[in-house]
Amino acid sequence: MNLIVYALFGLLFWTGACAEPELPVASPHQTVGTVNCASSTCHGAITPWEKSSVLQNEYTTWLRLDRHSQAYNVLLNEKSRNMAVALGLKQPASQSSLCLNCHTHNPPVTLRGERFVATEGVGCEACHGPAEQWIASHTAQGATHEDNVARGLYPTDRSVERARLCLSCHFGDDSRFVTHRMIAAGHPRLSFELGTFSVLAPAHYKTDVNGPRRKGDADALQAWAIGQAVASEQLLTVFANPKQGRDGLFPELALFDCNACHHRMSEKNYSPRLGLGPGRIHLNDSNLLMLRAIIALIDPAGSGAFNNQVSALHVAISSNASDQETVGLARTLSATIHRYLLQLEQGPVGLAESGPLLQSLINEAGADNYTDYADAEQAYMSISSLTAMLNHRSGLKNVAEINRHLALMRSALADQERYKPATFRLALAGLRAAMPGQEAGTEPDGRRNANGR
Ligand code: HEC
Ligand code: HEC
Ligand code: HEC
Ligand code: HEC
């Protein structure tokens, strides 16, 4: 009897430990408000504290430099006011949960502490989790990170959880999404790459400490790969959700390649790469394309099956397949991606080197794969993240030359409506030539790369 009880308890703890933690917005705990973190002896110092394990000027960095502190104010500007009118919202953008869900931390009214202020934008607790249960204990002697997490601190240090958190606003999730209608009303198109955006947001934490919780480059590579897998999963989740994946007669257009529709008729943009034939729209597959290169390295034997699942979904969407069938294919693909995500979470399996990955992303250009703006943009962000990692690890020689080609790639991407794949490919070819020992089709040590190209 006791044994069974123990076994049951064991199971409970085990599933508890493995369950995905709730995103801050879905936490059952009360939000206390950023002001509670802001005192100069807590996180509100003007300069970092020398002897502290954390910087202690986090609040100042966030308030002064981080766009997240302005995210609410954006809802008061003219663009937002016009959007609210165009969308026929009953309330102004600054009061509509359609907007507040991403532009502030917007917990249910019952979970707002006395000092909670909606206007503070994406504050500490929007990322670190409502602090009711951990605000007092997290500074106590001997408190561990695990104790804090058990009390509702969101584990931003874990790459999968961090990716899920950022993407919940920077792509969307079950509870919030920037639809094509919102984009047409004036919202910027969302695009995200975890590595790039982590660098873009001013760090209010130490990034170069080789402590047990921050492992440097291998982790950054793993985090990039995890970001691609999580983004692919979120795309499929929204696609498969009947409430989000459809807009009347049509699918949710924000999930598709924008320029499949938005381009001049005189420009023939049709690319045979997806095997769909001309005149078809297709899902924005930018993250899936990155994931393909990752899977080719970490599981060469399984990569054919993955590619087939992706193609099957593309084909089903543009043929007369039933909703049930396309959703089924999206779920199968999502399950496959989830298995890889678990594998990636175990460590940088087969990903120890950023060189081969970088090489295969660069080589994708040869296979006509950056014809879509979104694909090229994601490839650019990924390639620049990976190049930075490679440089950090082994010090690239001709950094100036590499930067020059990265800048050319960036300028090819400057205007989505005038994007010319050929210009982007030319810049990539220059980058390839500038990478030391990275001649086409070979890895630094002369082996053929994973794609065999
Ligand atoms: C799924 C989350 C999400 C929702 C919902 C959302 N936004 Fe945003 N919004 C963002 C993100 C993320 C950015 C920043 C994009 C970037 O820079 O990559 C942004 C940017 C903006 C910008 C441009 C900001 C600037 O500095 O130029 C405006 C304006 C804006 N949003 C208004 C709105 C309004 C109005 C609504 C409601 C109708 C809304 N947003 C709903 C996530 C969201
Ligand atoms: C947009 C999301 C976001 C917001 C907003 C945010 N943080 Fe962070 N914070 C992070 C991430 C990501 C990390 C680094 C990952 C990690 O190791 O936990 C981090 C790290 C930290 C750390 C270091 C943790 C450690 O153990 O080294 C502290 C302290 C911190 N944040 C405090 C704050 C405070 C205070 C605020 C509000 C003023 C704030 N953060 C706002 C995402 C955020
Ligand atoms: C609660 C929603 C939310 C979460 C969670 C969130 N963001 Fe944001 N983020 C926003 C919004 C909204 C903006 C736009 C703010 C503005 O324009 O003033 C933004 C802006 C940014 C910007 C500035 C973009 C630019 O164009 O300059 C970066 C970088 C960024 N976020 C990175 C991250 C990272 C990295 C994470 C995860 C650690 C994260 N964000 C988590 C909502 C969020
Ligand atoms: C299946 C085709 C299709 C796809 C895919 C698509 N759109 Fe649209 N888009 C349209 C149509 C149709 C309209 C309405 C045009 C009109 O009212 O004249 C529109 C309108 C717009 C508008 C407003 C322009 C206007 O004149 O009112 C913007 C901005 C926009 N789309 C951006 C995007 C972005 C960004 C994406 C990708 C995330 C995208 N679209 C994906 C078909 C598409």
User: What's the total helix number?
Assistant: 18
Portion of residues in beta strands equals under 5%
Oligomerization status of the protein chains:
single chain
Radius of gyration based on Cα positions: 23 Å
Distance between the termini: 61 Å
User: How many structural domains in the coordinates?
Assistant: 2
Which SSEs are present, and which pair or pack?
Layout: H1 2-18, H2 58-65, H3 78-86, H4 97-103, H5 124-128, H6 145-150, H7 159-170, E1 172-173, E2 176-177, H8 180-184, H9 194-200, H10 217-240, E3 246-247, E4 250-251, H11 258-261, H12 286-298, H13 300-317, H14 323-345, H15 354-363, H16 373-394, H17 399-412, H18 421-434
Antiparallel strand pairs: 1-2, 3-4
Helix pairs in contact: 7-10, 10-12, 10-14, 10-16, 12-13, 12-15, 12-16, 13-14, 15-16, 16-17, 17-18
The structure holds heme C (HEC) (4 copies).
Q: Notable features of this structure?
A:
single chain, 18 helices, disordered C terminus, two-stranded antiparallel ribbon, two-stranded antiparallel sheet, 2 domains, 4 strands, mainly alpha, 453 residues
Give a short overview.
By secondary structure, the protein is mainly α.
